[in-house]
């Protein structure tokens, strides 16, 4: 049997292993080492919900789910995803024997495939649809990366069981859940549920909005409308996703199905999630502890914060299924630290009981300092009363309590989500106007948004959830006359985000140099690495998008060219600015290494210091100096710090090389295609000239044809006249000549005086007309009608 190729490698995620390693490792490194007090991976967490968009969009969110996933006992991995390539009812299984990834192949468990196929009467996925489907493939590089860190060799990797879940009603999903429940119960099996959340925008035929932040009063926006004057559109998207996430976290399949039915939320993997929830609920009925069979959302992200109706976004969620609820100890809150740009605000806040039965219990009546603003991200430092080590976890404070859902989503440590804004925003005091309710879409069990039913035709194409936006740049002008301008606007937003990242990067670099802990595992270094990886990913994505826009012929039109040139120059300036930031950080790091070397060798010369700083052997010069030093304690600390700084310098050098390459790539595509563009333009001019000549020849041909038709009508008229004359002569002969007594003499007189002159005259006209027609026909034959051939 065949191997399914990694069809999305090189477009939706990197094909080259160094680049793919850097992206995945950067995303995984940004996940905190503990979630809700439990180390990662969470022991026993064998089922996750993770997104399947291009890694530039959803890779960071997916990393949280994969960091939580426990693969230690995995023998096989079930992959459940929606079908984006063809309309599917029921479920379908793969016909391939292996699935390829840039790292290597995964083997399909054909025995288990046959078992579930027979039990669920499942169909086979058409091979062409299987190759084009992205909902399963996008998880394989992450899965391979985690398997590589869990198992000793690829031979020990688990097999996979790929299943597409189609458009099923509630009874069918519960039936499939019961079929998969025994496999889910087996500790040797792992389940990955593939789904993005809300797809908002005209391209998804889903544009609800609620002015009063009440999802019970949704109305549908149109693309031509102005931006709402009430809360921004992304607040509605957040409310819709929160309601769906609450339904998922509840562990109740019916609650989830009812939420989808009421809100029509375009969760593309709602059917795989429904099957998984039905299986978990079935197992919960066999268990004394229902809490063991629920998902826990750990991160929520969005591709874009929508402000205008002509925009779009896709939401992403990571949710593992931990086997138990984490119960936090009773703690005493001793300090609140505001975000980095705010000064610390120490305050004794009392001794509230924080007994998190579900990691979402609120802490009420806690007096916050006057300087602390509600709805701000803060760090709460807590001292457990049972004597265990202190821990620090970010909470999103709303008024004087932690919101249950928001605490559930963000009480896990790590960097704040740059896309998610969970503040309530300005208070819109005016009551919401009565508006028509949104709800004209299909019901939960009807034809699905993601299933490509012919009657809908809404989802089957490439969208932001599947691939980076750069891949759509080539066709944007064809579908939207302002497509290139809209893309330039979106690129501008990305550059704005880079500028914000660079400001934060400078601050974190300073803190990193001042931090006594220079190890890679320190909080400052982890934050620095995560922000650097995120910024580099933005640079790569925006560079590709600018190149794609510049390769579009419409980018050179008078309307588009100024904006394309402006974003091109702006992105180049941003790349140069990042190079300057990294260059300054490198110089400061080298200065610090020089000072540390002098701690070991106070009598070292400048050449020796320079050699130590530029040492490529990761501390060999320092090690030699350490053996010659009489300051062993300080020298060893300096050696450790220098080794850490050296690793940072190596990474800076790699990033600067990549930035230089990105800068060159901005112009490479246009230079490479310049000759082809010139040839196309030359051929276009030749085509225009030939068409003009052809039009002239066609005009001559039309005039000649008209004259010919006119002369034919003349000939027809003459023929009719001759016939009429003949008829008249016959009639005269019959009724006049024959009926008279003049006999033959009278007949001859009539013929000589009337018929013969008329016949002679008609004969002359016929000869003249025939000569003219023959002359015109000969001229037409000798005339050349030339229409040039266009190659």
From TrEMBL:
Pfam families: Memo (PF01875), SNARE (PF05739), Syntaxin (PF00804). Keywords: Coiled coil, Membrane, Transmembrane, Transmembrane helix. InterPro entries: MEMO1_fam (IPR002737), SNARE (IPR010989), Syntaxin_N (IPR006011), T_SNARE_dom (IPR000727). The keyword Transcription does not apply. Residues 639-701 form the T-SNARE coiled-coil homology domain. The chain crosses the membrane at residues 713-736. It is a single-pass type IV membrane protein. Its main location: membrane. Residues 549-563 have a biased composition (Polar residues). GO terms for biological process: vesicle-mediated transport. Residues 545-567 are annotated as: Disordered. GO terms for cellular component: membrane. It is found in: Membrane. The keyword Transmembrane applies. Belongs to the MEMO1 family. Belongs to the syntaxin family. HAMAP family: MEMO1 (MF_00055). This is DUF52 domain-containing protein. It comes from Drechmeria coniospora (Nematophagous fungus). The lineage of its organism: Eukaryota, Fungi, Dikarya, Ascomycota, Pezizomycotina.
């Amino acid at each position: 049997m065949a191997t399914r190729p990694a069809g999305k490698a090189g477009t939706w995620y990197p094909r080259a292993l160094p680049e793919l390693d850097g992206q995945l490792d950067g995303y995984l490194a940004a996940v905190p080492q503990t979630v809700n007090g439990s180390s990662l991976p969470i022991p026993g967490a064998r089922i996750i919900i993770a997104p399947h968009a291009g890694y530039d969009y959803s890779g960071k969110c997916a990393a949280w789910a994969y960091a939580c996933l426990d693969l230690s006992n995995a023998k096989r991995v079930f992959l459940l995803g929606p079908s984006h390539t063809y309309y599917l009812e029921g479920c379908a299984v793969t016909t391939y024997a292996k699935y390829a990834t840039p790292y290597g192949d995964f083997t399909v468990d054909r025995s288990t495939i046959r078992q579930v196929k027979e039990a669920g009467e499942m169909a086979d996925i058409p091979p062409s649809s299987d190759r084009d489907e992205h909902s399963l493939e996008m998880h394989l590089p992450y899965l391979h990366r985690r398997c590589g860190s869990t198992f000793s060799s690829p031979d020990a990797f688990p097999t996979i069981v790929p299943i597409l879940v189609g458009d099923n009603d509630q009874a069918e999903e519960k039936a499939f859940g019961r079929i998969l429940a025994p496999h889910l119960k087996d500790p040797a099996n792992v389940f990955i549920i593939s789904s993005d959340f809300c797809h908002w925008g005209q391209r998804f035929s889903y544009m609800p909005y609620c002015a009063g932040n009440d999802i019970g009063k949704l109305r549908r926006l149109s693309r031509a409308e102005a931006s709402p004057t009430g809360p921004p559109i992304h607040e509605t998207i957040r409310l819709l996703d929160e309601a769906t996430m609450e339904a998922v976290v509840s562990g109740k399949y019916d609650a989830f199905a009812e939420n989808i039915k009421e809100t029509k939320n375009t969760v593309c993997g709602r059917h795989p999630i429904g099957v998984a929830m039905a299986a978990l609920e079935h197992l919960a009925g066999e268990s004394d502890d229902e809490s063991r069979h629920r998902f826990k959302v750990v991160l929520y992200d969005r591709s874009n914060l929508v402000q205008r109706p002509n925009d779009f976004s896709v939401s992403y969620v990571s949710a593992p299924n931990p086997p138990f609820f984490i119960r936090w100890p009773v703690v005493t809150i001793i300090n609140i630290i505001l975000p980095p740009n705010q000064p610390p605000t120490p305050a004794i806040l009392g001794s509230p009981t924080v007994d998190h039965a579900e990691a979402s219990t609120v802490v009420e009546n806690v007096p916050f300092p006057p300087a602390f603003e509600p709805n701000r991200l803060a760090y709460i430092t807590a001292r457990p009363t049972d004597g265990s080590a202190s821990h620090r976890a970010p909470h999103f404070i709303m008024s004087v309590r932690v919101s249950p859902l928001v605490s559930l989503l963000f009480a896990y440590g790590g960097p704040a989500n740059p896309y998610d804004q969970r503040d309530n925003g300005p208070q819109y005091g005016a009551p919401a106007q009565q508006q028509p309710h949104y709800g004209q879409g299909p019901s939960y069990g009807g034809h699905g948004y993601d299933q490509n039913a012919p009657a809908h035709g809404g989802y089957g194409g490439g969208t932001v959830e599947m691939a980076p936006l750069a891949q759509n740049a080539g066709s944007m002008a064809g579908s939207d006359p302002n497509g290139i301008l809209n893309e330039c606007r979106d690129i501008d937003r990305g550059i704005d985000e880079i500028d914000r990242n660079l400001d934060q990067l400078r601050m974190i670099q300073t803190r990193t140099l001042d931090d006594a802990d220079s190890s890679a595992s320190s909080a400052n270094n982890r934050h620095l690495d995560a922000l650097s990886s995120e910024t580099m990913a933005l640079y790569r994505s925006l560079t590709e998008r600018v190149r794609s826009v510049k390769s579009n012929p419409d980018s050179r039109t008078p309307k588009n060219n100024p904006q394309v040139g402006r974003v091109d120059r702006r992105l180049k300036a941003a790349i140069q600015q990042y190079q300057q930031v990294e260059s300054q950080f490198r110089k400061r790091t080298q200065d610090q290494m020089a000072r540390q070397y002098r701690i070991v060798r106070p009598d070292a010369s400048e050449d020796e210091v320079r050699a130590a700083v530029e040492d490529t052997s990761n501390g060999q010069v320092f090690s030699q100096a350490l053996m010659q030093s009489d300051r062993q304690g300080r020298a060893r600390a300096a050696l450790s710090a220098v080794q850490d700084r050296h690793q940072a310098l190596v990474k800076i050098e790699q990033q600067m090389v990549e930035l230089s390459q990105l800068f060159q790539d901005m112009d490479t595509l246009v230079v490479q295609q310049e000759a082809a563009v010139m040839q196309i333009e030359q051929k276009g001019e030749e085509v225009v000239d030939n068409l003009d000549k052809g039009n002239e020849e066609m005009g001559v041909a039309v005039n000649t044809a008209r004259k010919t038709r006119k002369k034919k009508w003349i000939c027809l008229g003459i023929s009719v006249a001759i016939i009429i004359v003949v008829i008249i002569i016959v009639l005269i002969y019959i009724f006049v000549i024959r009926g008279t007594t003049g006999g033959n003499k009278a007949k001859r007189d009539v013929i000589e005086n009337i018929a013969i002159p008329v016949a002679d005259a008609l004969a002359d006209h016929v000869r003249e007309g025939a000569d003219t027609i023959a002359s015109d026909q000969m001229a037409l034959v000798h005339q050349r009608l030339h229409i040039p051939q266009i190659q």
